[in-house]
Amino acid sequence: MLVYPSGIDVSSSAVRFLSARLRAHRRQRGTRWRRLTTGRQALLALAHLRCGHTYAQLAAGFGVGTTTAYRYIAEAVEVLAALAPDLASAVKAASRKAFVILDGTRLAIDRIAADRPFYSGKHKKHGMNVQVLADPFGRLLWASPALPGAVHDIKAARSHGIIDALTDVGLACWADKGYQGAGGTVRVPFRGRWEQLSAGRQAVNIAHARIRALGEQSMATLKSWRLLRKLRCSTNRITRLVQAILTLHLNCTN
Fold first, then answer.
1. Distance CA 21, CA 32 (A)
2. Beta-bridge partner residues of 126
3. pLDDT tens, 138-160?
4. Which positions ≥6 away from 213 have C-beta within 8 Å?
5. Whole-number Å distance between alpha carbons of 242 and 248
């Protein structure tokens, strides 16, 4: 396999942050020697998450075996995922804001037609459902554990306890029509054909759409990490990958 120099669009602060956490992790485990320094291991993991390169490609570039590359990346993901905030912490931090935006996204996976729990009828593809909370400026605040793509957004929100958590602190939340009937502090647009809505309801829906559109920036933040655009790993690992990327976003300046 040929190897060539390349670059990734990740800030040096992300490398320093992950390197420091890996260094502490190695000290805790009493690790004496590794093929790669913590800085190189951090760069290896970030290249995988940001660019979606395979373990074989990264192993060749970093001069290690494929199995070693897998272990190093899995270790870094676990270290980062352990630092991700839970829903209660995220809602508490967001309680001082005027409102939050709730939306769901599908992360594409490589599953076959027989895997019905992962097939989203809305998107006509296999994937995993991830619920996202964003602040009024569209900045990512929290991402949920991944559920099979067949799960509807409102069911996913209820399963994670998002609606109850927002209602308990009285935090207003803007969401799309997929959350109709959610109740609590969740606000959704009026249903019905545009021409059948009154002028007042049309104006409300327009204003609602403008606010909710900011939430798309948080989706773009997640999917700027190209690994999440097409996941080819076990579905059991996807939650940890999302949590790892959430930690990097919240602690590092991209």
1. 16
2. 119
3. 999 999 999 998 899 999 999 99
4. none
5. 10
